[in-house]
């Protein structure tokens, strides 16, 4: 946990921030928690604030949640009336105020140092680490913990159950529960909370989400929000897990925990699973994702600002009847020049989709250059 | 600058919540924008003075954040999610239908100032796409056909009374246990 790194001895005030700016495409669990059980979040936050002896706590909520912000404000007032937050909490002598702060539609505010800049009233340009690790030099250059909604809600349950019991949920190294958000082309998309590793991707698609749409077959899955590397339906994944067991999986055998998607060369990331069936024009899907990253780059680092824009331009051109054979390699070369060359992880988030789409679906990118046609019956994606 | 007493008192109540005044910038801009529709140069200067910073410190926020505006959207503002999960469910067709019916291109405001459409990035409700927001209300699973009907209701100013289109916010609110 991030809390270990917190600088408690600086003598400066400590801050706690809840990152409720959830904006990773494919992820939609914060909305449910905030609208349907805001008190759970407040309880988790106040326990966390007490644990780190925070002077003040903030909830940074995405601006699109107009009602969500109001709900949180009301819930905080209720908590204050009962003495759960504010001055002299439950007579303990500890005081901590909780403030709801609305963002303004920028994805980069989900990056913790960008979020801190934004909360200071500035453009959310992420800070370079080192030295600006929030736990040491965060909000107003004071030690700061930034956790997301799901994590802070877990704190409540960890306290209630005891750490030992909580760690029995799930599997070793993959403890706790996760809320998986399934979207795209399945019969019943939605959000589902399971113990880590309780089911495979195939079980999620077929048993939980009712399977694919009639007459369709699976083409690709993005397993952890749009920045996670895409998986091709007919891939095989082989190797050895951390605990020494060998695995040989098809896409549907991948266990939904932390290590499973990692072993398959991608990540469970935000838990947002995007399903694409055989009608999807993969180059258009790529163009859609690239348009998102080009729009959301903060523009601070040249490789990311220029690279994400060029990846968007190239894939959009490919979809408008002017695809060229060299585009696949051109895209890879741009993506490779972003990865690892930026201040924050947005560079990777923008590069990974292109790297994985182009490598795994190379044929589709080359075919586009030959025929220039859209895939028949495919949904327009760009 | 003509702000209502209500907004002014909200602003005055808000600023002391933060350890530093400048931190209140986004929240103050939201309040001003909610009342005036947009934050122009004069409003930026006013906010800057209030927070004891320079006008450029406000201007740079308004020009960066997608939801802050230098000019106002229409009276009825329709947001359609463009990002992949919604697109996979047909949001491009949904957006096109709204453009056709409301007579305005996405990113623009109709000439009479009544309607505007924004084809925007992820609205964080990917499981129920295509997702559409009208004002501050979220509507789920709005395909092309629904968009057609919804646009009619918007044009007649009757969306709020609709039994077919109930927003996510209203639906969640209705299942809450009544307060004792």
Helical element count of chain A? Answer: 14
Known CATH architecture of the largest domain in chain A: 3-Layer(aba) Sandwich
The proportion of residues in beta strands of chain A is: 15-25%
Which CATH class of the largest domain in chain A applies here? Alpha Beta
Spans where pLDDT lies below 50 across 5 or more residues of chain A: none
Major β-sheet profile of chain B: 4 strands, mixed
The succession of helices and strands of chain A, N to C, reads EHHEHEHHEHHEEEEHEEEEHEHHHHH
Q: Which structural class matches the secondary elements of chain A?
A: alpha/beta
Q: Tell me the count of domains of chain A.
A: 3
What is the CA-based Rg of chain B, rounded? 18 Å
The rounded Rg of chain A comes to: 22 Å
What is the residue-mean pLDDT of chain A, rounded to a whole number? Answer: 96
In short:
The complex is a heterodimer of chains A (382) and B (180). Chain A is an alpha/beta fold and 382 residues long.
What are its keywords?
heterodimer, A: 382 residues, alpha/beta, Rossmann fold, Ubiquitin-like (UB roll), de novo design (two linked rop proteins), 5-stranded mixed sheet, 4-stranded parallel sheet, 40% helix, B: 180 residues, alpha+beta, Arc Repressor Mutant, subunit A, Glutaredoxin, 2 domains, 4-stranded mixed sheet, 4 strands, elongated
